[in-house]
Structures are given as structure tokens and as C-alpha cells.
Amino acid sequence: MKKSLLLSVLLTTSIFAAACGGNDGNNDADPADNGNNGNNADVNNDGNDDGNDGNDTAQEDAPQGGTVTYGFTQPFAGLFDWAHYEGQDDSLALKIFNGDALVKTGDDLRPEPHLAHDWEWSDDNLTVTFHLEEGVMWHNGEELTAEDFEYAWEVIAHEDYTGPRVSNVNIIEGFEEYNSGDADSLSGVEIEDDYTISVTFNEAMPNAVDQLWTYPMPKAHLEHIDVADLEDADEIRREPVGLGAYQVSNIISGEQVEFEAFEDYWRGAPNLDGVVYKIIDGAQAAELLAQGEVDIIDLPPSQAVTLEGDDRVYLDDIEGLSYSYIGFKLGHWDGEQNVMDNEKFHSKELRHAFAHAIDRQGIIDSFSEGYGQVINAPESVISWAYPDESDLTQYEYDTERAKELLAEAGYEDQTGDGFVETPDGDEFTVNFMAMSGSDISEPRAQYIVQNLQDAGINASLQDGQLFEFNLFYDLVEEDDADIDLFMGAWGLAADPDPTGLWKSDDFWNFPRWVNEESDELIERGLSEEAFDDDYRREVYQEWHQLVNDELPLIPLNSPVDVYGIASDVGGVTVDIRDAITDPHLWYREQ
């Protein structure tokens, strides 16, 4: 799998664009915003809609003109195509100029109409027919048609495709034949006319629309490029074409993207003249916001509190559809599947000891100003599938209990240096890998290292440092031999299907956990019986209990995201993933 920059990327239904490259440096991937592929729920916080009355079209009485700057704290890779991007760094820019998809996520985290104004299912639940909005224009003057969706699915299904979204199209009938070169098209895709397209799936699934890749690709702009060359093509990296409210006018690699208003946007011309997506120093995010260098940014709570009462900005917060974690490296990716061959963390009791050693509430209190909730399952607390915590082991912070479990697993201090040795008497050291990104990144990482040392575990920061976002994910993806523990986060799609992050053959299963019972439960969650929500919820409860016991990672918290917004900027809706819902409604007081 070719990678140019991971994520926040989110891959199957369960990930949003998989690792989140958040401002607190805590994030993992935005890998494959499966499911709704990055379409965020239209969540409004009380009193903060600033002119957004819920209508799709821009308000006629909103101030016109001006620009707004959206800030981020990690350099972007510049893969400005939904089918190829891997991180939140690129997805934020994509949402500004190309954020529309077949469906969007509703307040109940279920798919709602968007580019498809409606759809219907066949009686056997195998075929869905989408009816597209007419008059939706690409920035190159071409009209969006059903062929743009067919083209996107065929690119991802092609044997030469280099991106991470295969799990969103291999569910379509005819994928295997097309991928192997035995067919010229996907047999499960039928174009009835320019605005009507049907998709037949290999099997009936309760989350088929969530799982299906729902972003079109501008066929007229890209079809002359070989699929293998798309990722590096100028048409994606330097001259991308979208169908959003703003079109790309200038790209300064890794630093800034400038957008200008697209007057023919299908939901109404935007209020602003343009938008700037700007990369800034995360340690200065709050200061730069107050000074007017940026107008909208996701702030670490530690910085947000410094702006309370500042009339130059206002703060908005929302529970995020994501979670942070500390992962164990249990094995490696062999190119096709995960192999769990790292004996260092083979002992489940050892992993349990690590969980008790870490003060998870202390991390929230000390570095997130109390924003967030300790969790014991890899799921956001706002998901309808979040498990009943009473059925889960809580792994309370308890250094003495951690020491007891270490001893039970055979890890005791045999040399008197205060750190345990392995059951064979060998030195036991642990490299902890964390990401840079903000002023709290290093003290938080050192706090975790100290927690482990207090329990008798000889832990230290890998190479004595934190790692920049791109390098961090390069090493995690490649299963660098020095990694023992790593700290990350996942942004999630609306549907709770764990496929893409947790099956034995999922590349983004970064702990490299292989468990037959887990695979079976994940498959049951997509079975015919799972069309019953109660049945599906019970399956995911059982799956979470399994993960909670086996503990391939230590869930840390389900976060509360805090955004700072300039006081003279309105129309901004903060939602479960970012603050780029409906950017055509943004305005600036003149």
C-alpha cells in the first residue's frame, strides 16, 4: 500500500478519514472516512449557529465578501482526492472545496440525502438505486452525472489503485472480476440515466449505504490518467477539481491552500470571496487566533481556557465521534494480513497491568482541562453502539494492582533496580512512541512514561523524542521494530462496524491483533440478522467485551473537541468531526 501521509483518514465504515491529526498531537488517523466518507453530522450547538438557520442556501441578508482562514497544526500531504487521501490534514482542505457526497450524516448518525436526493432498495436488500440532484457543477464546468460515481468506484476497484479505500467498493457485485482484469466494468453498477444509478452488493448488509464509497470523482478531469499514476498527478496535487462552494486558486505545498468562491455551487453562491486553509504552529494556536492570523481552529483545551472572556473570539465545543488510545505492537503486516508474532506482549495479564498503570483520568484532567470521558472500549460515547460499561473491566488507575498483575505474569524486579525483568530474567524495556503537535504533547507523553515507571516498567520515549505526524504514521504503518507502544486516535464514521480497523486482514489494524472470535463477531454484525438494530447492538456489545478483555490497545478517552472562532465570523457550524459543515454559509462582518 503506497502512503503519502496518514490520515486521520479514516477505510471502512468505522473510520472517518482514519487518523486524526488533531491540534493536541494526540491523534492517529483520519484514514478512511468510511461509511459516510467524511460527511459530518449537522450538529448545531445552542446559540452558536451564527446565522445558520438550517437552510442549505446562503442567507440573502448575510454580509457578503471577505475571506476566512481555517487553521490546522500539521503540514498537509497534498493528496486532494477523497479516494487517495489518508489524513485529516488533507481532508480538511477537501471539505472546503469538495465536501459533497451521495449522502450526509444525520443527527441520529444515520445516512440522509445529499447529492442523492433519495434512494430506494430492492425487495431482497441487495440493490440500491440513487437519484441524483440535477445541475450540480464541477469547478471545470462539467455537470455531475452518474458516470462520475461509476468512475470513482472503478478507480478504487482497479488492480493498480494505490489508495486505502478498497473495503468501500469490494462489497459491490463484480468487484473480484473487475479487480483481476477479467471484466471491463463492475457488473453491480448500472447507470439508468445521467441522474440515476443502481448498485448491487455481494450480499445484503444493514450498513451498505454507510459502507459504500459515496464521493464522486471528476471523470472528465481524470480519466486520461492511468489509475496507478493518479496519486501523483498534477490534476490531484496541484490542480484539483471539486464541486464545493470554493475552488482551489493557489497551493503552497504543505503550508497553505487558497480558495476562491465558486458562484455556481449547487446549494447557493457562498457569502465569502474566499477561504484560506493555513498550517500554523500548534503551540501558538490560541495566540494566533486571538491575533487574527486564523479565524477557525480546533484548540487543545489547555489553550482554549486562555481565551475565555476574550471578546475577540468565541469558543464552541462538542463531543467528538472519535477516541484516543495507546496501542500495543503485537505483530506486523505481511502485505495481505496481520501476523501477531511479537512475543513481547503475548501475555494478556501483562497488557492488563499496563492498563492499570496508566492514569487515564489524570491525562484528561491534567492535559485536557477535564474535557473528555474515560472509556474502556474502542468507540465514541456518542455512538449508538457504545457498550454498557457495567459489563466491561474498568482498569482503574492502580499502581499496586499493576505490580500484582506484572508479578502474576512473571515480571518481577530481580536486580533491585526498581524495574521488572521478563520471566526469563532478561531486561524488559518499553519504547513509547508519541506524536508532536502542541504544547501539551511532550508533557503528556512524559506523564504516561512516568506512570509506567511508577509501576516498575522501564519505559521511555522512543529515541528520546516525539515524532512529527507524517513520520509517526510512516513508522506505525511499517511496524518499525523499535515500537512497543504508540499513542494515537481514530476519527470514526457514523456506522459502528469495526471492519477496516479490527479484522485480521485490515491494514489499519495497527496493533496487528489477530483473533478469530473477533472476526466472527464483526461478520455477524453485518449479517442478515443484523438488519435488526437490537441484534446488531448485542453483537457489538459482545465484541467490545472481547476487546476489553483481550486488550490489544488501551482505550484512553472519548474527547470533547473545542473550537475557537473569530468573533466577527458567523455561519460556522461545529460538528462531530470539524467545523467545515456548510462553508458556503460562512460570513465575515464587514
From TrEMBL:
GO terms for molecular function: peptide transmembrane transporter activity. Residues 27-68 are annotated as: Disordered. Keywords: Signal, Transport. One of its GO terms (cellular component) is periplasmic space. The keyword Signal applies. Residues 111-502 form the Solute-binding protein family domain. InterPro entries: Opp4A (IPR050034), Peptide/Ni-bd (IPR030678), SBP_5 (IPR039424), SBP_5_dom (IPR000914). Residues 1-19 form the signal peptide. Residues 27-46 have a biased composition (Low complexity). One of its GO terms (biological process) is peptide transport. PROSITE patterns: PROKAR_LIPOPROTEIN. Belongs to the bacterial solute-binding protein 5 family. This is Peptide/nickel transport system substrate-binding protein. It comes from Salipaludibacillus aurantiacus.
